[in-house]
Write a structure and sequence with these properties.
The protein contains 17 helices and eight strands. It is of the alpha/beta class. It folds into two domains: 261 residues, TIM Barrel (Alpha-Beta Barrel), CATH 3.20.20.70; 75 residues, Four Helix Bundle (Hemerythrin (Met), subunit A), CATH 1.20.120.1460. The longest helix has 17 residues. The two termini are 36 Å apart. The relative contact order is 0.12. Its EC number is 1.3.1.91. Catalyzes the synthesis of 5,6-dihydrouridine (D), a modified base found in the D-loop of most tRNAs, via the reduction of the C5-C6 double bond in target uridines. Specifically modifies U20 and U20a in tRNAs. It comes from Chelativorans petroleitrophicus.
Length: 348
């Protein structure tokens, strides 16, 4: 899988001037407190091809913490990338090596998170102000691992000029051997806005990311920020190499069921949602047997049937009953029984 992922980046770079979705990548964004291993297992039941990302894990935690808890994932999640936070090249290189040894097919460096906690560690979005240091971090990781090393950034922070700031970052990371640059097409404001506000308040500037791709036609440039549908993702893929969807994929995961056919041209019927639920019930049963709770899994499934008749009752059951001590997969099955597919079938 690592070879396939690396090949996808190489092919996409070589074909970057072909304005078509062939050889492009669709991914689900790394999201703190959301894209844990249970979330990724659900998403993989809906799409075999999309690239999935972990939540950001701090390099120090990888080196000194409980690696099994932080890094373990189900092989079914592949292709999956590990996102690291940090600003010390040697530590990032060691954490990247550990992640690659765990089987991750890509190591991504976070240069976009604006939270106070991340800023206090002098990494995340504040690294936009130190592009040369980011380049050093990438070079150190590239020297340590064989899998792709990528970066996820903003277009700038605070009062930076996005034209200059993003170009400087791209030049530094590509000179260091970076395999892909994913750009959240907003500035980050390090003071005065919460992380949540930083996902909505600064205006989106997709054109800035398109211009970056025009300047680096043979490098992989992916876009992130405000993408709410596959139609929007496909439109972006006529300009850049990758489209990364965040909250929409989490809040309405069923839309991922069309990724393989619409983005990757795969033949065959989309995943059967009844089979997805049964797979997740069996997965939840295994998780509970290992000491976990049903809600660890079902919290990511709340929005799975948004728009279906019965979805409200489905959500109520999962929200109220899955959190109770001793709750088992029968709760998920009972919630699913409230979904009425007949309206969708008649419309089809």
């Amino acid at each position: 899988m690592e070879f396939k992922l690396q090949s996808a980046y190489v092919v996409s770079q070589r074909a970057s001037n072909e304005r078509m979705t062939a050889n492009k990548i669709f991914s689900v964004a790394p999201m703190m407190d959301w894209t844990d291993r249970h979330c990724r297992f659900l998403h993989r039941q809906l799409t075999r091809k999309a690239l999935l990302y972990t939540e950001m894990v701090v390099a120090d935690a990888v080196i000194h913490g409980d690696r099994g808890r932080l890094l373990s994932f189900d092989p079914a999640e592949r292709p999956v990338a590990l996102q690291l936070g940090g600003s010390e090249p040697a530590k990032l290189a060691e954490a990247a090596w550990i992640g690659a040894d765990f089987g991750y097919g890509e190591i991504n460096l976070n240069v976009g998170c604006p939270s106070d906690r991340v800023q206090s560690g002098t990494f995340g979005a504040c690294l936009m102000k130190e592009p040369e240091l980011v380049g050093d971090c990438v070079a150190a990781m590239k020297a340590k691992v064989a899998v792709p090393v990528t970066v996820k950034s903003r277009i700038g922070v605070d009062d930076q000029d996005p034209e200059e700031a993003l170009d400087r970052l791209a030049e530094a990371v590509f000179a260091a051997g970076c395999d892909a640059l994913w750009v959240h097409a907003r500035k980050a404001w390090l003071k005065g806005l919460s992380p949540r506000e930083n996902r909505d308040v600064p205006p989106l500037d997709y054109g800035r990311v398109y211009r970056l791709k025009a300047k680096f036609p043979h490098k992989f440039i992916g876009i992130n920020g405000g993408i709410r549908s596959l139609d929007e993702a496909i439109a972006h893929l006529t300009h850049v190499d990758g489209a990364m969807m965040g909250r929409a994929a989490y809040q309405m995961p069923a839309l991922l069921a069309e990724v393989d056919s619409r983005i990757y041209g795969e033949d065959g019927a989309p995943p059967d949602l009844a089979e997805v639920v049964e797979t997740m019930a069996a997965y939840a049963e295994r998780h509970i047997a290992s000491g976990g709770r049903l809600s660890h899994v079902t919290r990511h499934m709340i929005g799975l049937f948004n728009g279906f008749p019965g979805a409200r009752r489905y959500r109520q059951i999962l929200s109220s009953e899955a959190t109770r001590p001793g709750a088992g997969p029968e709760v998920l099955r009972r919630a699913f029984a409230e979904i009425d597919f007949s309206v969708q079938e008649e419309a089809a």
